[in-house]
Amino acid sequence: MALGMLLLVVSAADAGHVSEQTVHDVAAELRCVVCQNLSVADSPSEMASQMRAIMRERLEAGETPAQVREYFVERYGEWILLAPRRTGFNLLVWGFPLAAMGVGFTVVALLLRRWTRRRRGRAAPPPVDAAMSERIRRELETER
Amino acid sequence: MAYGFRTDPRNIPSPLVGRPAAPFALTAFDGAPVDLAALRGKVVVLNFWASWCNPACYDEAPVLERAWRTYRDRGVVVVGVDIQDTDEAGRKFIRDFGLTFPNARDGRGKVSVDYGVYGVPETFFVARDGTIRAKHVGALTDEVVRAKLEPLL
Asked: Which of A63, A93, A106, B35 fits B25 for a cystine, CB–CB 3.0-4.6 Å?
């Protein structure tokens, strides 16, 4: 185990051309398979660290981050991607919230317009002429 | 969403069933080579386990040994791959259960990732032509072994 860790450290030291950041970027997009909702980048599990080593190895062999991602998807299915792909049925996941927000804003806008129009109507009461004010005065007196 | 609530989010179908089994070559605990390519023409029961996987791996160890003894004369090889484990603990497990089929440790996790393994135990049933025909997640029973193996014989 200690020897293995030492070897890992040594191999990480001489692997200059693939940065830690590149490995991290790939790992951050993949689900740690032995955790609940953790990425491979964030998980301290042995499985995740083995996966990061495999990512580094494949990147160093000249694969692109997309190819490395694909290698994992082919074996674990799309489930391993923390963000579903923007194709096919998955588009619903990306599109639906936007569409729902659009509908929501439209409804609010329509209601706001209706409310403000009603208030404007109330702000302009029918004109009161002399006959009307006389009638109001009389009715108030009979109330007493 | 209603569909999603009725399915178990932890039950993930393997995309590997129906695909060729990835080749690998490991060294068994007893020093013998374990090379999947050399087993072409045989039905392979490829089992991923770990000594810390209790009780599932402990439950199925006798089942695997029994399957090996029952089916080895009919062209079946049981291969055990010990993952995320130490050499010492793996050896003890094999000794404790008296396992006689080839068992090797996947020290760097490359074989388990190649097979999309996300936990132990997981078992792949590989046909004579080298394609993966079935995958079983969780402890094997004699019934499961029979049901998955018989069609491949």
From this structure: B35
Tell me, yes or no, if A33 comes closer than 8 A to chain B by beta carbon. yes
* Token pair 């179908």 in the structure block, residue: B13
Asked if A51's CB is within 8 angstroms of B109's CB, the reply is yes
Model confidence pLDDT, tens digit, residues B9-53 = 555 668 899 999 999 999 999 999 999 999 999 999 999 999 999
ipTM: 0.84
Which residues of chain B make contact with A72, given a CB cutoff of 8 A?
113
If you measure CA to CA, which chain A residue comes closest to B17?
Answer: A75
Give the fold, CATH level 3, of A2-83.
Answer: Helicase, Ruva Protein; domain 3 (1.10.8)
Identity of residue B148: K
Tell me the shortest Cα–Cα distance from B41 to chain A, in angstroms: 24
Report yes or no on whether pTM surpasses 0.80: no
Residues of chain A with CATH 1.10.8.640: 2-83
* Residue B55 neighbours by CB distance under 10 Å: 8
